[in-house]
Each structure stands twice: as C-alpha cells, then as structure tokens.
Description:
Elements: H1 5-32, H2 38-62, H3 64-85, H4 94-113, H5 117-120, H6 123-137, H7 145-162, H8 165-168, H9 182-206, H10 221-237, H11 246-274, H12 289-310
Helix pairs in contact: 1-2, 2-3, 3-4, 3-7, 4-6, 4-7, 6-7, 9-10, 9-11, 9-12, 10-11, 11-12
Amino acid sequence: xxxxxxxxxxxxxxxxxxxxxxxxxxxxxxxxxxxxxxxxxxxxxxxxxxxxxxxxxxxxxxxxxxxxxxxxxxxxxxxxxxxxxxxxxxxxxxxxxxxxxxxxxxxxxxxxxxxxxxxxxxxxxxxxxxxxxxxxxxxxxxxxxxxxxxxxxxxxxxxxxxxxxxxxxxxxxxxxxxxxxxxxxxxxxxxxxxxxxxxxxxxxxxxxxxxxxxxxxxxxxxxxxxxxxxxxxxxxxxxxxxxxxxxxxxxxxxxxxxxxxxxxxxxxxxxxxxxxxxxxxxxxxxxxxxxxxxxxxxxxxxxxxxxxxxxxxx
Length: 314
C-alpha cells in the first residue's frame, strides 16, 4: 500500500506546530509562576506525553498497515493488562486470560492485517466469547462465574475488538481514495483528541452545570456543547484529508464526538465501580493506556462501519 507522503507530512507538521506552541506556553507559564503549581506541572506533563505519543503514532502511520497494526496491537495488549488488573478473576481464570492475551489478541490483529473482514468482524463477539467460558468452566470453579467471565469478555470487547477497528480502516476500498486510508486514522484520532481537549477548555471557561457529577465531576454541559461544536468544526475543516464533503465530515465528526463522550462516561463508570481514579500511571499526566483510548474505543467501530457502509466498495 502506498501512502500520500505530502498529505501525511502536512498533517504531522501541523500537529508538531501545535505541540511546539503548547510547549512554549507551558514553559512560559512555569517560568512566570513564583512557586510550584500543580495545574501547570500537570499541563507540562501532558504536553511531554503528547510529544511521545505523536512521535510513535507518526512513525506507525509512516510505516503503513504493518506499523499501525503493530502499534495498536501493543496498545491493546497494554490496555487489556490494565483492565485485567481491576477484575475479580481467580486462579481458575488464568487459562482463559492466557488465551485472551496470547491467542485471541494476536489472531484478531492478524485477521485485521490480512483484511479478512468476514472473520475479524465476528471473531471476538462470537468465537472468543464462546471459547473463553468453556476454558474457564473446565477449571471447575463456579464462584462468581458469570461475573468473572463477563469481565474477561468485556475486557476483550473494549481493549481488543473496538481498538482493532482503527487499523481496520486501512482495509477499506474507497473509490478515488486509494492509498490514502491512513488519513482516515489521522482524522479519527485528531477529532477525538481535539474533542477531549476542547471540552476541557470550554468547561474551564464556561462550565457551570455538571453533566454527570457521579461519574466525571469535571464534565459540564457547557464544556460538552462547546467542545462538541468546536471539534465538529475542526472535523469539517479537515474534510480535505478525507473522501467526505465538508458537511459529511462535520456529521461524521459529530458522531465521533458523541460516541467518544459516551465512551468516556462508560469507562469512568467502570473506574468508579472499581474504586480507582485512573486505569494506570504509565503515561505521565494521562494515566494509563485506556485513559487515552477511552474515547477512541467507542468511536472507532462506529466510524469504521459507517464509512464502510456508505463509502467503501467492499
């Protein structure tokens, strides 16, 4: 697969410029502060983490299908590990977990890599969902069996099945858009992440009404509306890098934003149920892998299937 180096370079260059501006602002705020400020330190930690994530994603995009598949496969593995540490699994579940990590996950990404849509679209929700309870029940431990099995299944659904739809975008055959599918991934990631950032900014500026105080106290109606509309406008402006018209790009961006927002709420509910603030602490200022993927988790499969149904030839 050949990728449009000029378009990809333009996108990556734009992101780098934004990060440079953010880094300068963060440095200036830190120098202007006479004493340590937790908010400023957190901001700079986030900016530094973003540099690392952008470099890794940029290298993956340049590497094409193999690079993107390997990177997202690694992210799925790390996310699945984070999720598994918060579940109520027992010794009897070890074989099922081993199958999830070392059989189901690599097979799913291999199917994505060879573009076998007919199988990767059902492999986890059908075959893996039936196989894992069989493996677990053979160990003979029935204590909280339904809860334990459901947690492993849901972990696979979130961390592997949903995330794998990001590299799956590269397998779509869109007439007149050949060799440019990598930009669909860039479009999805940019819109999702800009939505998160803009909802935070609008929430800080105008936020008054809590939208889900028990799940995420920092989220407000004003922040959500302002961020959603702003991110939709950003997506419409990025229509040039997609096969969509500006209005189609705006509509798809709005769908991405909505699914990302509700995905974040669902993942927050799971964290509250488990009694933790973050899924992990691997990424400074961001928590764990799932904390960075939570919006993508719900938006990626919907974005993939909408684009496949309306634009792809297969």
